[in-house]
Write a structure and sequence with these properties.
- By secondary structure, the chain is of the alpha/beta class.
- The chain has a single domain, classed as Flavodoxin domain (Rossmann fold, 3-Layer(aba) Sandwich), CATH 3.40.50.360.
- The chain is built from five helices and seven strands, in the order βαβαβαβββαβα.
- The strands form two sheets. It has a five-stranded parallel β-sheet, with helices on both faces.
- Strand 4 and strand 5 form a beta hairpin.
- Helix 1 packs parallel to helix 5.
- The chain is globular.
Length: 202
């Protein structure tokens, strides 16, 4: 059994969100390739996690403190979902140059010492190697290396750093950019993103 965890963090509804549209297409594509996929869906906007506090950390976190049992249980469930997943699909729009706060709250639940990484004499070791992560990024403008705003791109760069820290060295990115630059550009970006989805394999 292969487990797939599907996350969305766009505040927009599905019919107007590029990241939600493309992340759903990714899941549909992988499900078509393997109908036996077990899919767990977590909408981080419809069912948001509170911002991190000591009381809301998963019980496995060494800094976790007693109290707030419901919040700690919710955090533990998030961590368990991630640890059980073989494939993780993340819909991550860019908001103010970085990921949505809803997605950051989720990340704060999965970066747990002893569970997804550990420190040792040789530095940090990621413990989540072997998971496949496909992140769908949507940008209103253009943030490539050859653009004036390259230094402001903290969506893909942040996710790459976080995932690499826990041992996922080669996350896959599907990017739709320039979606606020007019209908023609939005359509072209969606077409390119759907083309990347169609090329996915298992």
């Amino acid at each position: 059994m292969t487990n797939l965890l599907h996350l969305d963090a766009s505040i927009l509804p599905a019919d107007s969100s590029v990241s939600r549209t493309i992340s759903a297409a990714v899941v549909a594509r992988l499900s078509g390739l393997n109908p036996a996929l077990k899919i767990v869906r977590r909408d981080l906007v419809a069912d948001p996690l509170a911002h991190m506090t000591l009381a809301s950390l998963p019980p496995a976190h060494p800094a976790s403190v007693p109290g707030g049992e419901a919040a700690r249980a919710a955090s533990a469930a998030v961590l368990e979902e991630f640890l059980a997943a073989d494939i993780v699909v993340i819909g991550a729009p860019m908001y103010n140059f970085t990921i949505p706060t809803q997605l950051k709250a989720w990340i704060d639940r999965i970066l747990v010492p002893g569970q997804t990484f550990r420190y040792g004499p040789d530095g940090v070791a990621g413990l989540a190697a072997g998971k496949r992560v496909i992140a769908v990024l949507s940008h209103g403008g253009f943030y490539g290396e050859d653009t004036p705003y390259a230094a402001a791109e903290h969506t893909g760069s942040y996710l790459r750093a976080v995932l690499g820290f826990i041992g996922i060295a080669a996350p896959e990115f599907i990017l739709a950019e320039g979606i606020a630059r007019g209908e023609a550009q939005r359509a072209a970006s969606l077409e390119a993103a759907h083309g990347a989805v169609a090329a996915l394999t298992l």
